[in-house]
Design goal:
The protein is of the alpha+beta class. Helices cover 15% and strands 16% of the residues. β4 and β5 form a beta hairpin. The structure holds zinc ion (2 copies). The site of one zinc ion has 8 residues, from loops.
């Protein structure tokens, strides 16, 4: 099993299934409300991929990727894959 732990990289707040985010109209979004971790940050309304995710606990934005904390070891594997992909 290589399931990542999902929590805020700043304050370690853990999103629950009932938590919701909005595709913010103020930031050019469509207003859809959904759980962004079900879709890896992709809005189901307009298919926009959010690179940043708001934390309702510390009220800061963090890169969506940074919310995923992989078990020890698998991070190295992922980085190696990225290295290979670059060459
Ligand atoms: Zn949207
Ligand atoms: Zn936070």
């Amino acid at each position: 099993m290589n399931e990542p732990q999902i929590f805020c990289p700043r304050c370690a707040w853990r999103p629950q299934g009932e938590d919701r985010w909005q595709c913010s109209p103020r930031m050019g979004g469509c207003g859809t409300v959904w759980n962004t971790f079900w879709t890896a940050g992709v809005c189901p309304g307009c298919s926009y991929r959010w690179q940043i995710t708001f934390c309702p606990s510390c009220r800061q934005f963090s890169p969506h990727e940074d919310w995923y904390h992989w078990p020890e070891g698998s991070v190295e594997e992922r980085e190696r894959e990225l290295e290979l992909g670059r060459n």
